[in-house]
Write a structure and sequence with these properties.
The chain is mainly beta. It contains 2 helices and 15 strands. It is globular and about 60 Å long. The chain starts with a helix and ends with a strand.
């Protein structure tokens, strides 16, 4: 396995300006509210891009406020296929098709070891049965949600329309309008059965031969959700910022910080409020044109997002218009 990884790195080719790591908050209770994935800051004319990304997350927590109790013991796996193509000199259209699973899993033992190795808090994880599934929410003494059967299916498909604001060799910026369609099902945690609309601004800048920075800010108008019998915030803000080190002409290492505002009104629970996630990873660009992303996320604002998310992405330019 070590030899295979070494051979893969040797086959890498020269790296370009860094792009964000392909992840967002994988909280199964808010993932369907339309928060945008990282979007390209650079729209290259005549190039189609195909990307497949797996976000594999695990959450184990118990939270209480004065009137609420929440239990989340769940694993999620979201496989997302993205196809982007330019439609004019500065314009591009992008289709994102996600398939999401929420239920029991196999990551608990790995995450326990991960937390022990880095000295991270385990929270309620040690108190919950290993590799089981349950999401339960109680408010004012009444059980509002109780889910224990795993489910999967097509999640909300997104159409993104991009416009290049700036395109220079070392700096680029683009504005994106994203429309998330109600193709998922709320009872399966694959959608909110309404249309969500986001406006995003993405930018990147290469500082020198070794360092690049990038950022994205977005505002989302959600169509709502009745999952927890809570009123969702109809306007959500989200942002990410990252820095990349071009370790060699072939390899990039990245540190990325993602955050968003609370998704629901009138709740005192951290898991349903503001979120902050740190992602550490990198990418390799192969001479064949393929790009491999590998990363891991941790909820640095503890219990505001899944405990750990494993991210694997594979992409390439597949054609020219």
């Amino acid at each position: 396995m070590i030899r295979t990884a070494a051979l893969a790195f040797l086959l890498c080719t020269s790296a370009s300006i860094a792009a964000p790591l392909p992840t967002r908050d994988q909280n199964p209770l808010t993932a369907s509210l339309g928060l945008p994935m990282p979007l390209p800051a650079r729209i290259a004319p005549r190039e189609w891009t195909l990307e497949t990304t797996l976000n594999w997350a695990s959450t184990a927590l118990m939270q209480e406020s004065a009137s609420e109790t929440l239990l989340v013991d769940a694993e999620t796996r979201e496989l997302r296929v993205r196809l982007m193509r330019p439609i004019a000199e500065r314009f591009a259209i992008q289709l994102q098709v996600p398939y999401r699973y929420t239920g029991a899993g196999t990551l608990d033992a790995f995450i326990d070891s991960w937390h022990d190795f880095f000295g991270l808090p385990s929270g309620a994880r040690r108190l919950l049965p290993e590799d089981q599934y349950r999401i339960a929410y109680v408010r004012d003494g009444g059980l509002r949600t109780d889910i224990s059967s795993s489910s999967s299916g097509l999640a909300d498909v997104s159409l993104d329309f991009g416009y290049s604001l700036l395109s220079r060799p070392d700096t680029s910026a683009a504005a994106w309008l994203s429309i998330e369609l109600p193709t998922g099902e709320e009872e399966k945690l694959t959608g909110n059965e309404s249309t969500d609309v986001s406006l995003s601004l993405a930018a990147d800048h290469r500082l020198d031969d070794k360092w690049s920075v990038y950022a994205q800010g977005a505002v989302t108008r959600t169509g709502g959700s009745a999952l927890l019998d809570l009123e969702p915030r109809r306007t959500l803000w989200s942002a990410l910022v990252g820095i990349a080190w071009h370790a060699t002409p072939a390899i990039e290492l990245e540190l990325q910080l993602d955050g968003h505002g609370g998704a629901f009104e009138r709740t005192g629970l951290d898991y349903l409020s503001d979120s902050l996630v740190l992602t550490l990873g990198g990418r390799c660009l192969f001479s064949s044109g393929w790009r491999l992303d590998l990363a891991v996320s941790e909820d640095i604002a503890v219990e505001t997002a899944p405990d750990v998310v494993l991210i694997i992405g594979l992409s390439r330019v597949v054609g020219r218009r």
